Amino acid sequence: MNYKDSLLYISLIQVSHVSVKQEESYWKNGIVSIEDLISSSERQLSFLPSALEREVAYLMNDAGHNVDKIASIFEKKSGKKDFYRIAYSVPEYILFLDIETTGLSPIYHYITMVGWMMNGKYGCWIAGTDQTELKEVCHKAKMIVTFNGARFDVKFLNNAFPDLNIEDKPNLDLMHFCKRFGFVHGQKNIEKELQFNRPKDIQDCNGKEAIALWYKFIFGEDNALDLLIEYNFYDISGMTYILDKIFFNYIWGKKIPKYGKPKRFYNSRRRFHIFYSKKKRNAIRESINAKNFNLDILEYSKSKRIVGIDLAGVINKSSNTGICLLTDKYVTTNVVKYDDEIVKYIVDSKADIVSIDAPLSLPVGRTSVYNDDPMRKEAGIMRWCERELHSRGVNSYPALIDSMQELTKRGINLSMRLRKMGYPVIECFPGAAQDILQLPRKRTDVELLKTGLLRLGIHGDFEERKVVHDELDAITAALVGKFFIDGYFEPIGIPEENDMIVPSTEKNSNDYNLIIGITGTIAAGKTTVSTYIAEKGFAYTRYSLIIAKMLKEKGIQVNRSSLQKAGGNLFDSQKQYDLNKKVENYIVGNSNVVIDGIRHYEDYTYWKEKNFKNFYLVYIQTDPEICATRYKEKEFQKAMNHNVEQEIIGLRQFADVVIDNNGTFEDLYLQIDDLIRAVFSKK
């Protein structure tokens, strides 16, 4: 294009030493073109007209190839708001671009289609199809026009197609462009304000519906793909309409002088016709479905009983807590109301682990869920895991936002109650899990979520009856527990807060591989067993070492009495979790660890929650008569009646291995050797 025919010809700020204010001044004084500026005696520039002309000609003579240069000048002097001048100067190089995705996270969601319009022609790419045309049109384009593209579309496109270099192209983002003229709502609302009408069949369609259409197509509805493409076409047509309306109504002849005859982008007679054969549609489905996670990989959890809970924040007539039991790939679901009902369900289910959809910890520094907490201002209302999810494009509520306070309180209290009963508890967020596993969220469509769970391989009573969304989220929560048990998970959190567990398509790599926890009553032989295991190459620790260190730091003499007193105080003051954390810090970095002296249900649940598959609880079974002979203190029976010893006896039910220590050392060592071989074989 000859630069004298271009709208850029009135863009005087492209010239060296011409500012935005000077440009406006020139326009007001009748200098409305580069030619006017060159011939004007008012120009007051430091170089000759011939030099000026060469400079401008360099930029303009093939404007399509100099868009990046021109854009950089505009951005430097007046910002991206002036990119519209490029659009109406080289319209054949302008790419209107809009994507559809499965959600908001560039990390967990994917692009379902890319639609474009350039030089009056519409085209699209569908996930699972050839990318050649998409790449060709993107490489040809000199500038893109989007709506909220700078924050959304470009990020997705960079992740999916890094070789497009789409982020390097000038981007006229209509969302920001429209704000200059008082249009501050989303694209659909701006279209209505400017009287752009969409066909009735997609009139109410929005981003959520677009996600649903994609899943409907993947699940077998051919017509859903046609509607999705049509929706995308009118998204892009709407963008061309908005740009034209804003430019011709608010800019041309008002913000800038009228010059030439700019080509309109919108054409009301423009139609589209994109046809995909049955064969091609099925090929798309096969391509997408091939990427789904195969639950058959999760072998270890097949025999485990996992309870998933979608916890309600308040207890009233209208609130329901969804609950389910997952064994292998089969679930049974129900709704309950009260905590006692939840606990009974878990006990009756003989659950190996419980996965709860609720915050199970407070932000660091907070001591109360309520707003009168004196640390509210300093510590805030969000935990690290919630901030991290937000950074990944996953929406979740802060743990202590007003509407979440009662849920967080209930979740923490319920988890503490369950841990004291010996049930490991993990925190999950079904929304994040659904994003990662490519399942439609319930807010997209409850029935689609149900279908997605079925296609993932989950079956159960929910297939035959009407279930509420709470039950489907409970199933998802249980799924997270299944991934966790098999080691396909990511813990999101910091040491001072509870980890949120999300599923992962890759196996988690812990700092340590195997942990053997030793428990048993007084004089049962725990230290003898632990020492022997340590001699086989395991790092050794025991709780009393950590407590002794704490006492020394306080200047307290270390003996049996002070150790017992300190240990009891820690437990009674709800600090057993903190003690276990100190033990964990002590062993981090070791491949294999033996822990001498697991005494409480909370000790057991702590290690199961950290490393379910690779934590083995070993109970040393020794006859009381033999223990009494080994016990150096008086009143053995009195010591055995202590509540801690009774809790240790209760731990036997959770033991992975029971070792009989009523015989010789040789018999004992043979059992330990068998144990070590067994745990390494299962690694």
Could you walk me through the main structural features you see in this protein, from its secondary elements to its overall organization?
The chain is α/β, with parallel strands linked by helices and 683 residues long. The protein has four domains: 3-61, DNA polymerase, domain 1, CATH 1.10.150; 91-289, Nucleotidyltransferase, domain 5 (2-Layer Sandwich), CATH 3.30.420.10; 295-503, Ribonuclease H-like superfamily/Ribonuclease H (Nucleotidyltransferase, domain 5, 2-Layer Sandwich); 514-681, P-loop containing nucleotide triphosphate hydrolases (Rossmann fold, 3-Layer(aba) Sandwich), CATH 3.40.50.300. Helix content is 43%, strand content 14%. Strands 11-8-7-6-9-10-13-12 form an eight-stranded mixed β-sheet, sandwiched between helices. A five-stranded mixed β-sheet has the order 3-2-1-4-5, with helices on both faces. Strand 7 and strand 8 form a beta hairpin. Helix 18 packs parallel to helix 19 and helix 21 (543-553) crosses helix 22. The relative contact order is 0.07.
